[in-house]
Amino acid sequence: MSEIVIHISELSKKYRGADSFALERLSLDIFRGEVFGLLGPNGAGKTTLISILCGLISPSYGSFTIQGFSYGTSAAQLKASIGIVPQDFALYPSLTAKENLLYFGAMYGLKGRALSTEVDQALESLGLAAHSGKRVQTFSGGMKRRVNLLAAVLHKPAVLFLDEPTVGVDVHSKKAILDYLQRLNESGTTIVYTSHHLMEAQEFCTRVGIIESGQLWRIGTPDSLISSVPGAKSLEDVFIDLTGKGFRDV
Amino acid sequence: MMSIRKEMLLLARDTGGIVILFVMPMILLLAVTMVQSGSFDSLLGSHMDVLLVDNDGGDIAKRIQDRFSDDDNLSLVTTLDGKPIDELAAKRLVHEGAYQLAIVLPRELSSDLNVHVKQNVDNILAEFDFSSDSTQKKPIAVAPKEIKLYFDPATQASFKTAVKMSIDKLVSNIESQTIYRMFQEELGEGADRHFQEQQFISFKEVDDADDTIQTIPTAAQHNVPAWALFAIFFIVVPLSINIVKEKSQGTMVRIRTSPTSYAHFLFGKTVSYVLISLIQFYLMLLVGVYVFPYMGLHPFQVGHYFFLLSLIALFSGLAAVGLGILIGTVASTQEQSAPLGATLTVVLAAVGGVWVPVFLMPTMMQKLAVLSPMNWALSAFYDVLLRQGGIMSIVPAILLLFSFFILTLFIAVTYDKKKKTI
């Protein structure tokens, strides 16, 4: 686990009209094969960081590379090497699960029989084969989450960004999703994951970073972070200790 | 290709969208054409009963009746329930809208006209000494006569003008014929000295149109291209909603993070919606050509201009798509994009001459009309349909429409890039 996949250097973001930085001089390296948990209260800067890394917004200062690629010089290669699972169901409700996946797969250059086979296998792997011809709008929340995940991994990205991938799903879907992510990770995919489920992060992540006020406050394995706070028994204790008990309404 | 397929699938599964895009414009076209055609025909085509109040009882009333009997579209009504109509009743019936027009002839119109003309003829002949006794008679005072016309208050001004001109011409003819007849009688040589009473100078409307196609400026010839354009530009609404939906439901995030360029995404939308606009256009043509006759309307005449009409529709579609993409890009919610798109389309249609021909607009609006892409397209349609223009006649319009597409797309892409740097 020595090869750097994501290299972030002094990354800052100040939104137009805002008084403070959403992200302030954040530097971070994420290594190949990691499951990196990006944790923090609401408004801490997690979504801003993910949005910048995915090319959705531009940073104010600083730089980063993913797989050695940057948006300035090799945007297409960078984009081809990442996948993103948004918190929203980023799917077309009136299209079937298969039609959605065929479209998103094609956006990554997959085509023809190879695409169709890939889609069928993906649907099968998350227990959706029997529902491939049904419109997404008829699916349960858990089924939508699974399709949402599959749409991001058809092209086998080197890095997968997940924003709250298990929010609002039943236990069975949650387990299926986490198992699937585990298998992806074992096959070499680096995962960057944000969640408010700290227990889930504690079990799932190999390393976590806690962001607050746009800055990286702590970084380490879940165990090392827990042991760094006296009396802490879980990541939740570490999190409360670092960020306080007050509400974070943004 | 997959983008186009996706757009088509999304549309095919949106029943409301299909109704808005394809069914509503056809209903609108039929309704508007029927309404306008009725109004048009009230001027030129349909049958109309006209009340005649004959207080004269002389020759002039008979000649007016003869003149009206030659016209298949007008019938004179001189009695109601077997009784002659008086002026009060005629006025009331026209005011109530039961009739559009009443003509009231004054008393002694024929006899006084004869007296008036005879005195004038006698005076002229006396100066030449053709009649020795004429100058010895004392002239009788004859008051000028008025033929009253009562119009339905709802009658169009153009119809009034046409009727007034027609009656004025009829009265002038009667007067001149009376003068000729009086000269004949005074000269005392009866049928031997025959005056030509026929009108010597007439006019003929010459149409410089291609003889191979009969172009009649009917409601159909105006409405089919005009409302097809309105329908084409109305795709601004579903297209902008479609783009806003992509943003709100998160699919735009996937598209923006994929290696496929944003231009490819826009290309997919453009091709899909231009195809839709062409389908709309052909459906409108089909309605004009095949459905109009069944509704008692003049059929739309495509002639041999199908290709040129399609070309104008294609570039109009591009202009509409550009505008739709721009609104979809700028708007954050459907609540913004739908009313903005609909209002803008209606304004561009109104200013562009879809409802009221540009030449009838006030000067200020005529100047504004040239800013509307619908006006460019409509002018191109008229160039082809009414002036039989070739491809060169529509090149300026399609260049303008294409420039509009490029400009709107450029603004949309620039805005989108700028938004990324918030």
From TrEMBL, chain A:
Q: Which PROSITE patterns match?
A: ABC_TRANSPORTER_1, ABC_TRANSPORTER_2
| UniProt source species | Sphingobacterium paludis
**Where in the numbering of this chain does the ABC transporter domain appear?**
6-238
| Alphabetical UniProt keywords | ATP-binding, Nucleotide-binding
Q: Which Pfam families match?
A: ABC_tran
What is this protein called in UniProt? ABC-2 type transport system ATP-binding protein
| GO MF | ATP binding; ATP hydrolysis activity
Q: Does the keyword Nucleotide-binding apply?
A: yes
Please give the PANTHER family that the UniProt record associates with this protein: LINEARMYCIN RESISTANCE ATP-BINDING PROTEIN LNRL (PTHR43582)
UniProtKB/TrEMBL annotation, chain B:
Localization recorded for this chain is: Cell membrane
Which molecular-function annotation in GO is an example for this chain?
ABC-type transporter activity
Protein name as annotated: ABC-2 type transport system permease protein
Record membrane topology: Multi-pass membrane protein
Q: Any one cellular component term from GO for this entry? A: plasma membrane
Q: Which residues cross the membrane?
A: 224-244, 265-292, 304-328, 340-360, 391-415
What does the UniProt keyword field contain?
Answer: Cell membrane, Membrane, Transmembrane, Transmembrane helix, Transport
Tell me which residues make up the ABC transmembrane type-2 domain.
164-419
